[in-house]
Prior knowledge:
single chain; Purple Acid Phosphatase, chain A, domain 2; six-stranded mixed β-sheet; 14 strands; globular
Amino acid sequence: MSRGPVLTRRRMLRVLAGGGVAVTAAGGAGAIQAQGLEVTRHTRSLPGLRSPLRVAFLTDLHYGLYVGGGQVRRWVDATLDARPDVILLGGDLLDLRVHATPQPLLRELARLSAPLGVYSVWGNHDYGSFGQYASRYYGPVRPDWPGRQAQVQRDLAAAGVTTLRNQGVPLRDDVHLGGVDDLWNGTPDVQAALAGAGQRATILLSHNPDVLAGLPVPAGLVLSGHTHGGQVRLPVVGALMVPSAFGQRYAMGWVQGAYATPAYVSRGLGTSGLPLRNLCLPEVAVLTLNPAD
């Protein structure tokens, strides 16, 4: 599968100039919007549920490059205010140089608390931060990147965040949560993540929504991020660029995958390429899931 365009600073600048919004960005409106926050609320039925479930979904924090601990603190506060039953993190937690440490991020994530726990998956920028691949920002490839990944996973666990990598857990007797590895840099296995669900309702957490097109089995609900909603959007035109092999198909909001599987693609919280957004505010999504009729 083609990865689609990668969002780089140079590409973003070229697209912005070509789209005629460079003046807006230069005036600071895009930077101001990148500092905003919208808590979106959604109600959806989920087959197999026996009682309601409130899910808070945060994704694409991108701590390190443009995001510091103070901004994460605002996102954590908004999440706690929603009083969710479970908190899910959709990957790209990190955007760090390979020798940097995420201690301020870990301190803020440790404040997250929900009766059914806090869970996360890996995203492509997490792998860059581990040193799996080289870039001008991350630095050179680190041969010991799997060890760094394992250490960050342990650090997250100490902060109360369980990382799911092609694994599933029963949240309650009536609901199973599965999480898959990153599509671009990992080895996602949907069947392994949903194995053992039985008759429970199923939620699948995948950083990249492109898994939707090739789902080997249906899921009750898929939650993804990665696209940032395009990050820069124009009236009528929509997103100028979406890092997806399917263009605008999975850019943001409610979409549908194979087997008519419903999915929600969040706009995410941080930024990539440039620290700006346009008509695409950072988002914490709160989903109230109800038993199906």
